[in-house]
Write a structure and sequence with these properties.
2 copies of one chain form a homodimer. The first copy, chain A, is built from 12 helices and 8 strands. Chain A is an alpha/beta fold and 293 residues long. Chains A and B meet through helix 7, helix 8, helix 9, helix 10 and helix 11 of A and helix 7, helix 8, helix 9, helix 10 and helix 11 of B.
């Protein structure tokens, strides 16, 4: 089913909002846009969008309304105005925020008679509208299913669950993975550069290790869910000796050792808590609680 | 060409040395072993290995000699003894150590008339002898090529270059990637657990992100080799705002925030150095120098 006749509304025309509206237009949807500074709608109007004079008018035009503004406070100010009628609307909030803000917004929308899905865009504006743009959604499954086809115009849509906070949590978790892979690659690149190895020569090795280790995660996850960490591959205290080695090598060749030191500090704490004979995923206990630096 | 007739020697029969000798036996190589505590050779002898009475005798028996002892000091003590003749031998040192020790050992061996390849085993003993065991080698290419087929009995052999220190450097760089992927996954698992999401439910998402980001590395490496970091995907100061968000979310839900804080601290330092408008790989400058904590 291709719902390209479904009218849609986009509120907020920053770089990302403009990209979202453009993707809807390209997919053939009658698209209404609204932005506080109306000039940001000019190019979209030239491309076929309708610029609504008020938010209230914009909300009435679409079967669903994408909200993509600066932050949740801006959303509350814009949509919470007394003249704005939310009853019966379907809001899909792609504004950046945290899980608490998402849950509060879902509650707030529900009280006003609106349906609400939260979302997070794991993409840059230039890839929106292609399969490369991953867009995470959380909230009532029935609302996601009802609009899945329309949302598909924006990228690869993924439904995470009923808790509206899930999209934000998966988003930051994914970013932590992204920066961690990049930082580990930079650590290795810096180490190898001391021996005259180009970044391009080292990168395929780093890629292979990252991809290979990622394959272990589903198996390691089972240890966490069982709460049992037998040292099938190696014990944490064996790993810690190799971590010391990574720190020593980094310091010996004169590169940064902060990342190696953090890796070892967390393992050492877990060993001090009696887990030296267990396997790496036992570190979930350290990651699951705050640490006073 | 299958050189399964090539006689080999293994010196050092810890868990890893035993696994190496077993892999050679399984591949059909006449295998001589030596260990300070001779009882560690008993099972291997039962399986067809010959236990040499002295190191000097062991060295004479093989076309190549694998050395896998506690550390480089132990290697120097054992092979540096006055009655041990190294002239004409081919040493392949798989003992754990750093790049400086590897380079020193190569020089030391050369002075005694021995050929020398350094190596690092990226595997656990139980996978040695299978393709899953990656064994890194560095040193003269002609020596690697001459013994490549024989070394293939131990796992997937990779030649890195003439500098004998490369195997150690690639080894620790790969370990940094391994622990970083695992830690980022644990960070995400801890975040999602606060919303009741099982580790098994989150793991495939983490795997997908790690694998996807790893694909960027060759392209990002080109930026480093060119020394030019245009913000094609995003600028570091934009990333830093999302990093702040990761820290805030981690603290809000009560999980560890050390890894998020280190990620942001390094980006902040690069921004303070004037790189806020450039792309992530510009952080190589921070990773390439020591930082006084």
């Amino acid at each position: 089913m291709n719902n390209s006749d479904t009218p849609v509304t986009v509120i907020g025309l920053g770089l990302m909002g403009q990209a979202l509206a453009r993707a809807f237009l390209k997919a053939g949807h009658p698209t209404t846009v609204w932005n506080r500074t109306t000039s940001k709608a000019d190019q979209l109007v030239a491309d076929g969008a309708r610029s609504a004079p008020t938010i209230a008018d914009a909300l009435k035009a679409g079967s669903l309304t994408i909200v993509c503004v600066t932050d949740y406070q801006a959303m509350h100010e814009l949509l919470g105005a007394s003249e704005v009628e939310l009853d019966g609307t379907m809001l899909i909030n792609l504004t950046s925020g945290d899980s608490t803000q998402a849950r509060e917004a879902a509650h707030w929308a529900e009280q006003r008679g609106a349906r609400y899905l939260d979302g997070a865009i794991m993409a840059i504006p230039s890839t929106v509208g292609t399969a490369e743009a991953v867009i995470l959604h959380s909230g009532p499954r029935s609302d996601f299913e009802a609009h899945k086809s329309t949302l598909g115009a924006l990228g690869t849509t993924t439904y995470l669950g009923a808790d509206p906070g899930l999209a934000s949590l998966y988003d930051v978790a994914g970013l932590a993975m992204m920066w961690s892979v990049l930082n580990a690659w930079l650590q290795g690149t810096a180490l190898l550069a001391t021996a005259g190895v180009d970044a391009a020569a080292y990168a395929p090795f780093a890629q292979q290790i990252a991809t290979g280790v990622a394959e272990w995660l589903p198996g390691y996850a089972e240890q966490i869910d069982r709460g049992s960490f037998p040292p099938e591959v190696s014990a944490l205290e064996t790993d810690a000796r190799a971590m010391a080695h990574l720190i020593e090598e980094s310091e010996a060749v004169g590169v940064n050792a902060e990342l190696p030191k953090l890796i070892k500090a967390m393992a050492d704490r877990s060993i001090a808590a009696g887990h030296g004979g267990q396997q790496y995923p036992v570190l979930i206990e350290e990651f699951s609680k705050p640490h006073d630096d």
